[in-house]
Write a structure and sequence with these properties.
With 302 residues, the protein is of the alpha/beta class. It contains 12 helices and 11 strands. Helix 2 links the parallel strand 2 (30-36) and strand 3. Helix 1 (7-25) packs parallel to helix 12 (280-301). The structure holds NADPH dihydro-nicotinamide-adenine-dinucleotide phosphate (NDP).
C-alpha cells in the first residue's frame, strides 16, 4: 500500500513559515490578480488565491475585466501594475479569451513581478539554471518530493504532459536534480512501457484516471497533477464503479473531481502516491505565496 504524500499538510507548513517571515522581515507583499471574462473555474482559482493572500497578511488587488476587453486596455493595466510599488507579483489568470494574444500579454509582465514564472525571461533562466521565478505547480511538486525524501539523482523520471505550465518546467527541475528525464505527450509511442521505466512518474495529462496499473513500476513514486471534473453519471460509473463514493458524489452534487491517475489501481503498486484532492493542488497556491513573498523581499533589498 502506497504512502500518501500529503500536499495539504506541506502547504500548511510552508504558509506558516511565510506568515512568520512576513512579520520578521516587516514586509507587506502585494499580489495583483487579473481575471478576464467569466470562466467559472478561473473565478474559483482567483478567489482561492485572494483568500490565501488575506490569510497571510498580503496586500491583494483583484481586477475583473470583461471578456471583450481590448489588448490595449489589458496592456495598459499590466504596465501600470509593473510600476506600482505596492505590487510585487502580477498574475494573469489563464486561459484568457482568444482575441487576446496570451504570449504577448504574459511578456508585458515585468520579469521581476512574474510570480507565475511564465515570462520568457524566467523560462530562459530556468532552462540555463539561473535564479528565477519557478512556475508554482512544478515548484510545489519538487517541494513534495523533497519533503518525502525522494532522491532524484540518477533516477529515471517520466513526465506525461509537455505544457509550458507543468510538463516542461517540472522536467527541467527534475533534470537540474540529476534525474534522467523523459517527457511524453499525445504522440508518444508505447506510453505505458515508457512509464513503467519510471522511478518517479509525473502525470500532467488532463484525462481522468488515465494512468493505471499498466503504467507503474512496482515501488515507483507517482505524482498526480491532474484535476479533472467528471459530471455525468455514465462516465463516473465507467471510471469509478457504480457504488463508489465518487459516483455517489456525481449523483448528489452533479460533479466530482479526480486526478489523472487511477488511484485504486495504482495504490498497491506505488511506494509513494499523491491523492487528488490534497496532493499537488494545495502546493500550487502555497508556492504562489512563496514566489510573491520572495519578490517582495527582493524588492525590499534593492
Ligand atoms: P495541457 O492540456 O496544457 O497539457 C496536457 C498534456 O498532456 C499535453 O502535453 C498533451 O500532449 C498530453 N496528453 C494529452 N492526452 C494524452 C495522451 N492520450 N497520451 C499522452 N499524453 C497526452 O494541461 P496542463 O499541463 O495545463 O494540465 C495538466 C493537468 O494538470 C490538468 O488536469 C490540469 O487541470 C492539472 N493542473 C493542476 C494544477 C494543480 O494545481 N494541481 C495546476 C495546473 C494544471 P500534446 O502536447 O501532444 O497535446
Amino acid at each position: 500500500m502506497a504512502v500518501l504524500m500529503d500536499g495539504k499538510a506541506l502547504a500548511a507548513k510552508i504558509t506558516d513559515k511565510i506568515r512568520a517571515d512576513v512579520v520578521s522581515f516587516g514586509l507587506r507583499p502585494g499580489l495583483a490578480v487579473i481575471l478576464v471574462g467569466e470562466d467559472p473555474a478561473s473565478a474559483v482559482y482567483v478567489r482561492m488565491k485572494e483568500k490565501a493572500c488575506g490569510k497571510l497578511g498580503f496586500f491583494s488587488s483583484g481586477f475583473r475585466l470583461s471578456a471583450d476587453v481590448s489588448e490595449d486596455e489589458l496592456s495598459a493595466l499590466i504596465l501600470r501594475l509593473n510600476d506600482d510599488p505596492d505590487i510585487h507579483g502580477i498574475l494573469l489568470q489563464l486561459p484568457i479569451p482568444g482575441h487576446l494574444d496570451e504570449k504577448k500579454m504574459l511578456s508585458l509582465i515585468s520579469p521581476d513581478k512574474d510570480v507565475d514564472g511564465f515570462h520568457p525571461v524566467n523560462v530562459g533562466r530556468l532552462m540555463v539554471g539561473d535564479e528565477c521565478f519557478v512556475p508554482c505547480t512544478p515548484r510545489g511538486i519538487l517541494a513534495l518530493l523533497d519533503e518525502y525524501g525522494v532522491d532524484l539523482k540518477g533516477k529515471r523520471a517520466v513526465v506525461v504532459g509537455r505544457s509550458n505550465i507543468v510538463g516542461k518546467p517540472v522536467a527541467m527541475l527534475l533534470l537540474q536534480r540529476h534525474a534522467t528525464v523523459t517527457i511524453c505527450h499525445s504522440r508518444t509511442r508505447n506510453l505505458p512501457d515508457v512509464c513503467r521505466e519510471a522511478d518517479v512518474l509525473i502525470a500532467a495529462v488532463g484525462r481522468p484516471y488515465f494512468v493505471d496499473e499498466g503504467f507503474v513500476k512496482p515501488g515507483a513514486t507517482v505524482v498526480d497533477v491532474g484535476v479533472n471534473r467528471v459530471d455525468d453519471e455514465e462516465t463516473a460509473i465507467r471510471l469509478f464503479g457504480k457504488e463508489s463514493p465518487k459516483t455517489m458524489k456525481v449523483r448528489e452534487k452533479g460533479y466530482t473531481l479526480c486526478g489523472d491517475v487511477n488511484f485504486d489501481a495504482v495504490e498497491n503498486m506505488a511506494e509513494l502516491l499523491t491523492p487528488v484532492p490534497g496532493g499537488v493542488g494545495p502546493l500550487t497556491i502555497a508556492m504562489l505565496m512563496q514566489n510573491t513573498f520572495d519578490s517582495a523581499k527582493a524588492f525590499a533589498e534593492k
